[in-house]
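Journal club prep — side note

Before the paper discussion, L.F. wants everyone to see what a predicted structure for a comparable chain looks like in C-alpha cell form. Sequence:
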Amino acid sequence: MMKCSLLRYSMFGVHDSKTMKKILLSIALLISVRCFAQDDKPTFPFQGGNEVMAQFFRDSVKLSPEIMKVRASGIVIFKFSADEKGAIKNVVIYYADDVALASPLVDALKKSSHKWIIPFKEKEHDFVIPFQVKFTAPEKESEAEQAAMYTYYKMRKPIIARDQTPLYSATLLPTVIVNYGPAQ
C-alpha cells in the first residue's frame, strides 16, 4: 500500500503528502476562482434593464399629428448594431405595418445611442427590437372615428421583406409597446 501511494506522488515529482495536498488545494482554488469569475447570467443589453428601456422608448417616441389623426396602429421590427461604446449604427427596418410608423420609431432608436451594452469581448452586436404602436380607442366611438380607422387600414403602406433576412447572432429584445389615445 505504501509503495502505491509513493508511486502516485512521484508521478508529479512530489515525494511527500503535505506538498501534494498543497498542490491539489492550489489547483482546486484556481479552478473555483475561474468558475466564479464567469458571469453565467447575461445582463440586459440596455442600461438600467428592461423596464428602463421600455420607459425610455415610451417617453422618446413622438408620434406626428398626422399619425394620431388617422389613428395609425401596427408593428415595426428593426435590426440594429451597437458597438462596444453602445453607439447605434446600421438600423434596418425588417417589417412595418405602415411606413408612417417607422420614422418616429427610428428617431427614438437613434436617441438611445450609447445606452446599449453588448456581450463581453464583442466589438459589435446585432439586436432585433419589435415596437407595437397602439391607438387606444374611446369606449364609445363615433361612426366617423370608426371610418377613420378603417380608412387608415385600407391606405396603409407596409414595409415587408421580399427576400431572406440573415440574423446571424442577433439578440431579440422584448416588444416595446407605445400606446396613445384620442386625448393626446
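L.F.'s comment for the group: The radius of gyration is 28 Å. Keep this in mind when we get to the figures.
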